[in-house]
Write a structure and sequence with these properties.
3-stranded antiparallel sheet; 4 helices
Length: 146
């Protein structure tokens, strides 16, 4: 199906930092993330001010027919007006920078949550398994065997 002239299509592969430019990434590495989802691209587009858009989650890019990555379809007149750009490249970079910023914030919050138990929390600290007392390569003895 050919794209209509009055629609702008953004594929999630355009924002994938794992892809090279020749493989389909269309934004710089500073504006891309690994494995972007359609929901994250929609969130980034909404936070840039774009409200009129249609999601097609089961669509696959013609050069990547095996991957059902999804795409956003939106009217260019609305998009150019809201983002203040005059090209599709500018729109993609605006969405990509917001996407990258959100990804970094989520990563930093995840680091805080994955830290171990507090120093004085004895109950949680007791759940840790420590293998420091064993020599390397030495296995746990079972049933009195040496």
């Amino acid at each position: 199906m050919a794209a209509k002239r009055e629609e702008m299509t953004l594929w999630t592969g355009y924002f994938d930092s794992r892809l090279s430019r020749s493989d389909g990434r269309r934004v710089p590495k500073e504006a891309s993330i690994p494995k972007p989802t359609l929901e994250s691209v929609v969130w980034a587009a909404r936070s840039t001010g774009i409200r009129k858009m249609r999601q097609e989650s089961e669509a696959s890019h013609p050069s990547r027919p095996h991957a059902k990555e999804g795409r956003l379809v939106m009217p260019p007149s609305h998009v150019f007006e809201v983002t203040g750009t005059s090209s599709k490249e500018g729109v993609m970079q605006a969405i990509g920078t917001v996407l990258r910023k959100r990804s970094k914030e989520a990563k930093e919050q995840g680091k805080d949550a994955t830290s171990g138990p507090a120093k004085g929390d004895r109950r949680r600290r007791a759940q840790r398994k420590s293998f420091k007392h064993r020599k390397s390569g030495q296995r746990k003895k079972k049933f009195g065997r040496k």
